[in-house]
Design a protein that fits this description.
binds S-adenosylmethionine; Rossmann fold; 8 strands; disordered N terminus; 12 helices; alpha/beta
Length: 311
């Protein structure tokens, strides 16, 4: 498996030479994330792409021709699903033709949503190779590979040219990063002056109780790096980003999570369905969802949505 490489979608062909390295020199950070997001493979199962393709076939779908509605269960790895992404895009006034970098894009759902609904040209970057492979396949299968491209790299060091983006989008990623100073420096370098930063993030709440694990971003403390809203805002200010509109959306996120935990509990009774997050995370996903619900309800975590401007 490669650690850092260019995607293989058509627009990736316009990018510089692929950068590859061996798994043996993968940093600890990347290794911990792989162990979390690609756990079933570590347990000897098929690759994520193969599992998902088989699941679409089992659900009576052609995995090479899919609708955005059919993949929403596996390409929105954040609270609030597509509504949360639409809300953030509206808050940031994303305009047609805007060049947007989706940092920690996962399987690429927000990249496709920005391309399909807001007319943006999106580059998604993720450190988890299995997610980049799925993102490329899903963009091809939904006919959006001309407006989205994907790259497997660490957000702290992205092989992309200065000032290449009008917007940077980051959704449920910073809590996976032990140190974000280098990432913020990259965002500053890659954004045009006056460019927009759009964040939808999990931050620490006021409760002194420890986080109940596992949650969707971490099975253990190695991959959970929550910081408070105040600390995140201070880091952003030091990094050269001025707030435009920032809001705590924990209440609506909790209502959404409660509804989904109820549905996940009823999953068996409702019969065969389209692929969902359990295919990515394994059977533990229902427990992760309940723990996230309880962590939100007890103010151990909060959800922040906001827009900042590069000074
Ligand atoms: C909870 S998922 C969210 C994925 C996507 N943003 C979404 O909302 O559907 C967090 C993602 O951040 C990625 N990630 C974490 N640290 C990263 C880093 N240093 N560089 C690039 N991606 C990273 C993980 O691989 C994972 O795909």
């Amino acid at each position: 498996m490669t650690f850092a490489r260019w995607g293989t979608s058509p627009c990736a062909a316009r990018l510089p030479t692929p950068c590859t390295s061996q798994e043996s020199i993968m940093p600890d950070h990347a290794r911990h994330l792989d162990a979390h997001y690609d756990a079933p493979v570590e347990l000897g199962e098929q690759s994520l792409t193969m599992r998902l393709r088989a699941a679409f076939r089992d659900a009576g779908r052609d995995p090479d021709h899919l609708a955005l509605d059919e993949i929403a269960g596996i390409d929105q790895l954040h609270l609030g699903g597509r509504s949360a992404s639409r809300s953030l895009a509206a808050l940031g006034h994303l305009a047609p033709g805007a060049r947007v970098l989706d940092v920690g894009c996962g399987t690429g759902g927000a990249s496709r949503l920005m391309a399909a609904e807001f007319g943006c040209e999106v580059t998604g970057v993720d450190i988890t190779a299995a997610f980049v492979e799925v993102a490329e396949w899903l963009s091809r299968a939904t006919g959006l590979d001309d407006r989205t491209r994907f790259l497997c790299a660490d957000a702290a060091q992205m092989p992309l040219p200065d000032g290449a983006f009008d917007g940077i989008w980051c959704q449920h990623v910073l809590m996976n990063m032990p140190d974000i100073a280098a990432v913020l420096a990259e965002w500053h370098r890659l954004l045009v002056p006056g460019g927009t930063l759009l964040l939808h993030e999990v931050v620490a709440g006021d409760s002194p109780e420890p986080l109940v694990l596992p949650v969707p971003w971490a099975r253990s403390v190695e991959t959970s790096h929550l910081r408070s809203r105040q600390s995140l805002e201070a880091l952003l200010s030091q990094g050269g980003f001025a707030p435009v509109a920032v809001q705590d959306i924990s209440e609506s996120a909790l209502a959404w999570r409660r509804k989904h935990s109820r549905r996940e509990g009823e999953g068996e009774a409702r019969g065969p369905a389209l692929p969902g997050p359990a295919l990515i995370f394994g059977d533990v996903f229902a427990e992760m969802g309940r723990n996230l619900r309880d962590n939100l309800a007890a103010d151990r975590v909060r959800i922040l949505e906001g827009v900042w401007r590069r000074a």
